[in-house]
What we know:
Blueprint: H1 2-10, H2 16-19, H3 22-52, H4 59-88, H5 92-96, H6 98-116, H7 122-129, H8 137-144, H9 146-176, H10 182-210, H11 212-233
Helix pairs in contact: 1-3, 1-6, 3-4, 4-10, 10-11
Amino acid sequence: MLTGLSTFLVGCVPTYEQIGIWGAVVMVALRFIQGIGVGGEWGGSVLLSMEWARTNRNHGLIAAWPQFGGPAGFFLANLAILAFSQMSGDQFLSWGWRVPFWLSLIMVGIGLWIRLGILETPIFQKIIAEERVARAPVIEVFKLQPKEVLLTAFARMGQMAPIFIYIAFIFPYGMQVVHLSRDFLLTVLQIGSVFSFFTVLFSGYLSDRLGRKPVYIFGAAATALRVCLVRHDQ
Length: 234
């Protein structure tokens, strides 16, 4: 709900001509709220999926399905932007870009309906029955596993930072520096999303067979190599 409603409100942000710099301030605040919502639900969805896995041999593949939602949602979002870019034409920057954000309320309703129908896992039900639920889980984790929290945060930072280059910075760079069309960039990103449909699940499968650490290290090294190649091209 937090993510979905803030996404809808992005489409309602007044323009610079209407409220000046406050438009950018409101946009950043809404993006911050989106991030809190995504961060709160993403980890929980992965854990929920993993706990429902029947054996340890398929934890990686099952836990990869929530990650599959990333490229799938990105594909649908870009498809909507591409469609309204074609429909609105020269008016895209005035109102065309807002419509997909407004329509996201439909996805909020569907997501809420699905989320409320998901049962707690047997593992968590057992913890509830034994009254072992921590009153302040976040504080408990920092007390018991501070090293793991920091290592995970830094590992994820190296993974997440390049993503925003690929999905966000590519538009101002591609349009203003390379002088490519917006629709061309959207089409290229769509192709990348389709490839991710397969690589995300395949990586989860490989993690069950080869181990989590080797697969993650390979992904980190491949990302670093890709960034180096982009810098070399520039």
